[in-house]
Amino acid sequence: MKKVLVLEDETSIRSFVVINLKRSGYDPIEAGTGAEALRQMEQNPDIKVALLDIMLPDMDGFEVCRQIRATNSKIGIIMLTARTQEMDKVTGLMTGADDYVTKPFSPAELTARIDALYRRVGETEEPVSDEVVQGPFRLNSRNRTLEKNGERVRLTQVEYSIVKLFMDNPGRALSREDILNSVWGRDYFGELKIVDVNIRRLRIKIEDDPTSPTYITTVWGYGYKWGI
Ligand code: CA
Known about the structure:
The protein has helices spanning about 10-25, 35-45, 60-70, 85-95, 105-120, 155-170, 175-185, 195-205, and strands at about 1-5, 25-30, 50-55, 75-80, 100, 130-135, 135-140, 145-150, 150-155, 175, 215-220, 225. The chain is an alpha/beta fold. It folds into two domains: about 1-120, Rossmann fold; about 130-225, Orthogonal Bundle (Arc Repressor Mutant, subunit A). Helix 2 runs parallel beside helix 3 (about 60-70) and helix 6 crosses helix 8 (about 195-205). About 35% of the residues are buried.
């Protein structure tokens, strides 16, 4: 069964999400507090996607996200945000979330986001054993890992997919739409901003000086370019 963690303290919203997930063939694991969510994660290591509410009785969802990410770089994380401030989205993504859904959301929208993320997370085993080395970087597409100067860089699945896209297209300017379509899929109906936020996070992880990036450079008004 495809397990999805549903962390939401409001029982009416949680039931609504759970019913819709079951209808779409998922196996929802419920939690009403951050502590319960972390306990469920320990007991169910096969959870592939987590939905995290932000306003919780014991801790905020960003902290739950940070704690899950500290030990699990593979899981897909979607933040459920009630507020629409840009900061929330950015904070969530910077703490390691892959996506966010703003309440109120339709069951169709939520399921589409989970399906898309689940597909990406599920693609962990690639049949070809392949290594690409460019400058200080070594990308292993079988293990989906990246090393810089022989040191492992911890990436989320989304970040890995972006780096792979760049390394497959060195020196080529990629539009934000290209990156969104390739990494998130054409059926994704989120915002282009998610590309920029992920690039910002990637730069922090891989650039020598993230404030003056040399590997991922900005192509103004268009997108980004990978150069070694
Ligand atoms: Ca709440």
